[in-house]
Write a structure and sequence with these properties.
- The chain is an alpha+beta fold.
- It has two domains: about 250 residues, 4-Layer Sandwich (Glutamine Phosphoribosylpyrophosphate, subunit 1, domain 1); about 170 residues, Rossmann fold.
- It has 17 helices and 21 strands.
- It has a seven-stranded antiparallel β-sheet. A six-stranded antiparallel β-sheet has the order 5-6-7-8-12-13.
- The radius of gyration is 23 Å and the shape is globular.
- It binds adenosine monophosphate.
- This is Amidophosphoribosyltransferase.
Length: about 500
């Protein structure tokens, strides 16, 4: 998963881009980048591996001059985690285009081959975002005038929608012209628009989550529609148009389960409220079907599941206790490449308060179970802290299938829910009982916050891929690219093409 932000301002945008990326840091901690266009129409770039606060030093911020810019935080999905793949990417023709992308193209290999054959375009990384940038550039190049109208931009996006498949939320800058933002025809990945009125005129921001709009002093205006493109000229004129042939709204449900910040609204749905609803639904299931479980206390696995667990406790009329303390200086365990490191880092990250466990039957609550590493370790820790019985509840249903739309999920075989029933999973993680949310309840929990959204992208639970182009061959290739071993091998050769992407340290 990644986070993106773009701003057309009346003042230098470097600080606001930095702040926006910091607010989107939870969407990617692997690499960060900002590109701005200065007063001489020259691109300024800083990108490198690391957290926002570590990538941008004062000297970089000074260099990122200009009133228009885009930024990106990366969580690697299919690509490698080499810093050469950090975004934004750039191509020099036509005009000079910079782009930052969140999502995953499902026909990247075909498009890549086609680009080379028909336009002799070279792709220098393994990133599908560089492919998307080149498709965009190639289509924009078909208009051979030195002028660029909003119609030209929208025609280009229409052509891009026809060429690529999958999930994409994009911010892009066309040098000398303006900022373009667009969202795939299914609206799988989120993108929202904000505005700020100043004495010099209106300033605009586009960002993955509304939190980056509020937090930078802009006002949320609306979400970008699925398939829609927004073009904001450098002098602040905004144009928008639906550019997809058949847009359908189908946002990714996992944003609400795990990824997004609770204080964000995505597609008119409060992430926080949807999590409270997930807790209510799961609490009702426990009350209805598991009344015989002698639970003494409900304990969340911090932090995403705290709002969920609190609601479960309230439905069950049981005490809610923070039995685990999180070391806030340790990142998400997923960023660890190999399974051994991942195991250790769960214990580094969380520690139990034994008074909350000693002699009690506890219900641990997590938002989801992916590999099962966290749950297995946590259950072990709860027992070591003296728990009598340890039950486990997951606010998301069994994750059985890989994600092909930009969420960093392991390969199918590394998912504990792949091909296993709940009782087997329960045994593997060592719980005395395992209760999963029903998919219908999850969909209802999120959907009730905005009845206009009638469908969600739920493939990791159902195996139904809405774009209709996913077959076993594709999944096998993904599997090969994603398993831990492949990742470790790729990242070992990380520095090979760093020279081509000078980060101007
Ligand atoms: P696991 O140990 O693999 O079962 O990890 C499950 C935990 O990881 C849950 O506590 C989730 O909060 C979190 N999680 C779920 N999906 C992801 C993801 N795609 N990337 C990072 N963490 C995740």
């Amino acid at each position: 998963m990644c986070g993106i932000v773009g701003i057309v301002g009346k003042q230098p945008v470097n600080q606001a881009l930095y702040d926006g990326l910091t607010m989107l840091q939870h969407r990617g901690q692997d690499a960060a980048g900002i590109m701005t266009v200065d007063e001489y129409n020259t691109l300024r770039l800083r990108k490198a591996n690391g957290l926002v606060r570590d990538v941008f030093h004062t000297r970089h911020m000074h260099r990122l001059a200009g009133n228009v810019g885009i930024g990106h935080v990366r969580y690697p999905t299919a690509g490698s985690s080499s810093s050469a793949e950090a975004q934004p990417f750039y191509v020099n023709s036509p005009f000079g285009i910079a782009m930052a992308h969140n999502g995953n193209l499902t026909n990247a290999a075909d498009v890549h081959a086609h680009l080379f054959k028909t336009a002799r375009r070279h792709i220098n990384t393994t990133s599908d975002s560089e492919i998307l940038l080149n498709v965009f550039a190639n289509e924009l190049d078909k208009n051979d005038s030195l002028e660029l109208s909003a119609d030209d931009v929208f025609r280009t996006i229409t052509a891009v929608h026809r060429k690529v498949r999958g999930a994409y939320a994009v911010v892009s800058m066309i040098l000398g012209h303006g900022l373009v933002a667009f969202r795939d025809p299914w609206g799988i990945r989120p993108l929202a628009l904000g505005k700020r009125e100043t004495a010099e005129g209106d300033e605009y921001i586009v960002a993955s989550e509304s939190v980056a709009i509020d937090g930078t002093g802009f006002k949320y205006v609306r979400d970008v529609e699925p398939g829609e493109a927004i073009y904001i000229t450098n002098d602040g004129q905004l144009f928008s148009r639906q550019c997809a042939d058949k847009p359908k709204h189908c946002p990714c449900i996992f944003e609400y389960v795990y990824f997004a910040r609770p204080d964000s609204f995505i597609d008119g749905i409060s992430v926080y409220a949807s999590r409270v609803n997930m807790g209510r639904k799961l609490g009702e299931k426990l009350k209805r079907d598991y009344a015989d479980l002698d639970i003494d206390v409900v304990i969340p696995i911090p932090e995403t599941s705290c709002d969920i667990a609190l609601e479960i406790a309230s439905v069950l009329d049981l005490p809610y206790r923070q039995g685990f303390v999180k070391n806030r200086y340790i990142g998400r365990t997923f960023i660890m490449p190999g399974q051994t490191q991942r195991r250790k880092s769960v214990r580094r990250k969380l520690n139990a308060i034994s008074a909350e466990f000693k002699g009690k039957n506890v219900l641990l609550v997590d938002d989801s179970i992916v590999r099962g590493t966290t749950s297995e370790q946590i259950i072990e820790m709860a027992r070591e802290a003296g728990a009598k019985r340890v039950y486990f509840a997951s606010a998301a249903p069994e994750i059985r299938f890989p994600n092909v739309y930009g969420i960093d999920m392991p390969s199918a075989n590394e998912l504990i829910g792949h091909g296993r029933e709940s009782n087997e999973i329960c045994e593997m993680i060592g719980a005395d009982g395992l209760i999963y949310q029903e998919l219908d309840d999850l969909v209802a929990a999120v959907g009730e916050e905005n009845p206009n959204v009638q469908r969600f992208e739920t493939s990791v639970f159902s195996g139904e891929y809405i774009t209709g182009d996913i077959n076993q061959d594709y999944l096998d290739e993904l599997d090969a690219a994603r398993n831990d071993m492949a990742k470790a091998q790729r990242d070992g050769g990380e520095d090979a093409n760093l020279e081509l992407h000078n980060d101007n340290d």
